[in-house]
Amino acid sequence: MVSKTKKPSIPITEIEQSAFCQTDEDLASKTLQEEFEIGVQWQKLPISYMRTSPEQLSNNIQKAKKTLGQKLVILGHHYQRNEVIQFADFRGDSFKLSQFAAEQKEAEFIVFCGVHFMAETADILSTPQQKVILPNMTAGCSMSDMAQKDDVLDCWEDINDVISSKSSLIPMTYMNSAAAIKSLCGENNGIVCTSSNADAAFDWAFERGDKILFLPDQHLGRNTAYKKGIKLNEMIVWNPFKPLGGHTEEVLEKAKIILWQGHCSVHTRFTVDQIRQARETHKDINVIVHPECTFDVVNEADLCGSTEFIKKAIVDSPAGTKWAVGTEISMVNRLAEENPDKTIFCLDSVVCPCSTMYRIHPAYLSWVLDGLLEGVVVNQIQVDQKTREFSRIALERMLSVV
Predict the structure, then answer these.
(1) d(CA 379, CA 132)
(2) Collapsing DSSP states into helix, strand and coil, what is residue 265?
(3) Cα torsion for 217, 150, 5, 143, to the nearest 10°?
(4) How far out from the chain centre does Cα 118 lie?
(5) Are 325 and 342 in contact (CB under 8 A)?
(6) How far, CA to CA in Å, does 55 sit from each of 113, 337, 365, 368?
(7) Distance of CA 159 to the CA centre of its chain
(8) What is the C-alpha separation between 68 and 107, in angstroms, rounded?
(9) How confident is the model at residue 6, as a pLDDT?
(10) Of 263, 209, 213, 265, the residue nearest 236 (C-alpha)
């Protein structure tokens, strides 16, 4: 049994989260050089790209995309800034984009405007002949960084050493995790889930075992489990920096859900007070939040669901309806722009984009496309064969569960 105390560390992606927070909603891109002045630790580019205006970058991207034609497909997550998402051939949340990636059999190049774990997933689900490119290699995910491979392996071994032979532990990881974590799940009869299909993934897991180790977002895991009728006292949080996650063997034996101590730095900003303030200010307001929000926020809201669920609920609602939204600001602003017949605003008055999604500046997209025009592939994401094999098993289980 591995039972050691480790020193906590904070991912740089978590530290940078507040770098672009502001009290107004003007998140228009500046030159990359200007954005670097805030002190972010992003991938550096040739000075010509650093100084080019967003307007000129847009023209350059359009020309490059037209020249590359069907050899290229660009995938864009809903949280991308407008200056980037406008070039996406397909938009979606992580689940929908995984489906798109698996379906793209003709394109030679898949440029993923998202974060590292998404590009890894695209590489795993694409064909060996296709090349997956992440425009900015430092576009990681603070939540994913909270579940390091060695820590998770220690956790897996510790729990299995403790629980009786009568119990069966199923590992389940949220899409927002590294390929190594997905691989661990695939190799140990587990599954990947997204916020779109977490409910069905829980059903799948409990058909095969009586305990779930849920990685890495404790809030999605808790909110999903509670919705399935599992009591809060049947769930525990595993702290990777404490022996046995901070628990006794007896507690681990009794737990039905073991939640990794991870979170989303964007969605944990939303509070019950913000919801109550929105209801005081706006009559007939609909409050809709993402399941990465904390338990109390989800239970205070009117609706809770994935980014695709949030988008559909708002788009399909009648004109004149009002929506207070608890998710990433770039998506909220875009919904407001595309639905002018409705009142749509973010619950948090301090505007904070997802700092890692925001790392995909149009300069990076322009740079990788220019490389392709010159026959040079930069920032290719390649998952090693063993990790790819077991990750694909867990991902295919995810795609089969609706």
Answers:
(1) 8
(2) coil
(3) -20
(4) 8
(5) no
(6) 18, 20, 13, 17
(7) 26
(8) 10
(9) 56
(10) 213
Gyration radius from the chain CA atoms? 21
Higher per-residue pLDDT: 104 or 303: 303
Least-confidence region, from 6-20, 78-92, 123-137, 335-349: 6-20
Please tell me which residue, 35 or 224, carries the higher pLDDT value.
Answer: 224
Please state, as a whole number, how many other Cβ atoms lie within 10 Å of the Cβ of residue 81: 25
Residue 337 and residue 74 in contact, taking contact as beta carbons nearer than 8 Å:
no
Buried b (16+ CB within 10 A) or exposed e, 346-379: bbbeebbbbbbbbbbbbbbbbbbbbebeeeeebb
Which pLDDT does position 106 carry in this prediction? 86
Is residue 5 scored above 80 in pLDDT? Answer: no
Tokens encoding 2 = 């591995």
Tell me, letter by letter, the H, E, C secondary structure of 34-45.
HHHCCCCCCCCC
Tokens of 37: 């002045």
Give pLDDT, residue 11: 44
Tell me whether the omega of the peptide bond preceding residue 216 falls within 30 degrees of 0, making it cis: yes
DSSP-based three-state secondary structure for 173: strand
Phi, psi of 369 (to 5 degrees): -70, -40
Task: Note the pLDDT of residue 344.
Answer: 97
Taking the C-alpha atoms of residue 269 and residue 327, their distance in angstroms, rounded to an integer, is: 9
What angle is formed at CA 80 by the lines to CA 110 and CA 191, rounded to 5 degrees?
A: 65
Q: Stretch 34-50: mean pLDDT, rounded?
A: 90
Residue tagged 């694409």 (tokens): 126
Output DSSP code: residue 318: P
pTM, entire model: 0.88
Secondary structure of 200-231 in the HEC alphabet? HHHHHHHCCCCEEEEECCHHHHHHHHHHCCCC
- Single out the residue of 208, 207, 262, 206 nearest to residue 234, CA to CA: 206
